[in-house]
Design goal:
three-stranded antiparallel sheet; Lysozyme
């Protein structure tokens, strides 16, 4: 015969175990929630940290012991494109719940440090968007060759380009930057080139005409340039600057 005390302990163990398990899952879920930050074109280069969540007496699994992957300046996120009822195009890092959407990704064309492209001989885009570029260059007092070089480096002249971080269009404007510049449709070549060129002209004035610092700020954000007191030590940004300068020189000779 099982003693009454033992029966009571067994009853409470059966009753409470699911509740304790549910509470533990809820705690773990709340610990894992984190927000995405979009600060203009600013990016950071930090190493992801991982917590081990173990129950008493439970050994760590191989998955928990595996080192967390390192993040880079081009940290990957999901980006979703959807349309509101009035036709307004929306871009978000959150999946729309009540309307159709597309999940889009695009990598900065000239930002991969391991790119196999020969930037001294890769074909140039000397004809697309001539009228827009010439008009905007005059308005913003920029060289058309510089605008072309940035477009080439950012999107390879693909007007529908969207990066993993959410940068949009020919000159890869971040949503906050586009809004600040008054760009309502970043996928419009006219608006995108106008907004991106205005932003580039503003950076050139901010850095007293220093093209290297201006390109660093365009790619990595003014905050990172200020934080590192110069070109940030991101391999992506350094490769980007070098390649834009090569393209700039080639476009000046070609157009």
């Amino acid at each position: 015969m099982i003693p009454l005390a033992a029966k009571t302990c067994w009853f409470w163990l059966v009753l409470c175990s699911p509740l304790l398990s549910h509470a533990q899952q809820a705690t773990n879920a709340s610990d894992d929630i984190s927000g995405n930050e979009f600060a203009g074109n600013d990016v950071t280069s930090t190493e992801a940290k991982r917590q081990l969540k173990l129950s008493p007496g439970e050994p760590p699994t191989q998955q928990q012991l595996r080192p967390a992957p390192k993040t880079t300046a081009a940290n990957s996120i999901a980006v979703f494109k959807s349309n509101q009822a009035d036709g307004t195009v929306l871009f978000s890092d959150r999946r729309p719940l009540n309307r159709p959407y597309q999940q889009l990704h695009f990598d900065c064309f000239a930002c991969d440090p391991n790119s196999s492209i020969n930037w001294y001989s890769t074909p140039l885009f000397v004809r697309p968007y001539n009228r827009i570029i010439d008009r905007v260059a005059l308005e913003q007092q920029l060289e058309p060759a510089l605008i072309r070089a940035v477009i080439h480096a950012e999107s390879a002249f693909q007007a529908q380009a969207l990066s993993k971080r959410g940068a949009i269009g020919l000159m890869q404007l971040m949503p906050d930057t586009a809004a600040m510049l008054g760009v309502t449709d970043p996928l419009s070549p006219d608006q995108n080139i106008q907004g991106g060129s205005k932003y580039l002209a503003t950076l050139l004035k901010q850095y007293n005409g220093d093209l290297t610092l201006s390109l660093a700020a365009y790619n990595a954000g003014p905050g990172n340039v200020r934080r590192h007191q110069g070109v940030p030590p991101f391999a992506e940004t350094q490769a980007y600057i070098k390649r834009v300068l090569i393209l700039h020189k080639r476009y000046k000779q070609a157009v």
